[in-house]
Each structure stands twice: as structure tokens, then as C-alpha cells.
Amino acid sequence: MKNLLYKKIILSLMLLSLLLVAFFSVNRKFFIKEYSFQSFRFIDFTLPSVEGTNVTMSTITASKPSVLFFWAKYCPVCKPDLNFLTALKHNPNFADIALISVATGEALPDMITFVARLEEKANFPILVDADRSVAMQYDVYKVPETFLIDNQGVIFKKFIGSVSEQREAFLRELSSVRMQPRQ
After folding, report:
1. How far apart are CA 40 and CA 53, in angstroms?
2. What is the span of the domain harbouring residue 45?
3. Rounded CA gap, 23 and 27, in Å?
4. What total of structural domains would you count in the chain?
5. Does a structural domain hold residue 22?
6. pTM of the complete model beyond 0.85
7. What region does 103 belong to: left with phi over 0, alpha with psi -120 to 50, or beta?
8. Inter-CA distances, 104 with 24, 87, 110, 130, 152, Å
9. Helical (H) or strand (E) element with 120
């Protein structure tokens, strides 16, 4: 009798877990919430790239509107976002945009292997933030998160969740970047 009760409880918990996983997988937009965002000046950093060099953000973004994309290899929507951003660099309307991607929480050798296996090769730097120190400076606690930076180095918009799933809003905001030279 006791054994049957345990089986029912375990079966009920498994069914509940399955339903929760299905709900949150289908309703990813459930997690994308509007929130108030206050602009701030970008925080400069230097990280190793999968190309084998150390890259400083300010050298890439100097006097250009920029996109800073935080992601991880375990993230299911991050790979489509990488492809979307790669295609964006091929669009003549956005050719002058600086793109920087930061893979978080992974060791550099693992990311080099992962990036080498990607079907579509990124046409922008992929930096590795193994200890998540840069992600923490930007208050990135889940991935993907994407920041839009104007020519003056001011982060004026933060997208939480997949930018390829928020394509219209992302492209509209990216098109609105202020074009004054940095002071």
C-alpha cells in the first residue's frame, strides 16, 4: 500500500515536471519582460578571443554604434542569434556597426572547439569570459542579453532574451542609434 502511494507521488511529480518544462519551452517570451532601463556608459574590458588574441572592447567600438552580445554555448536560442548577427553584418545598412560577442562561463579551449564547429562562421570577435567577471559588471545573469551602444559609448538599450525573436524591435532600436562622434 505504501509502495503504491510512493509510486503515485513520484509519477505525479514527474508529470508536473514534464508539464512545467513544456510550458516554459513553448512560452519563452513569458520571460521577456518590459523593465525600466537606465542608460550608462559602457564598461571597457579586455578578454581573450577564440582567434587567440586579447581584445579590448574600446578598440573595436571606437566612434561606432555597437552591439554587445552575451551568450553561452548551452543556450538553445543563442546559436540562432549568432547567425542573425552574422547576417546583420552583411547588411549594407548595418555594415558600420561594431559587433562584439562574449561567451560566458566557458573555458577558452572549449569555446575554440565549439566555434570551429559552427556551420555559419561569425564575422565579428567572439570573446570568452570564462569566470563571468565581465558579465557580472554588466549585470548579465542569464543569456542571451544584448546591449546597444551609441557612438558616444552610451548603452541606450538592453534586450533580454533572443534578439532574433525580437527582430523588429531590435532593428528599429539599432537604426535609431545617435550618430554624433564620441567626445
Report:
1. 28
2. 34-175
3. 6
4. 1
5. no
6. no
7. beta
8. 23, 22, 11, 6, 26
9. none
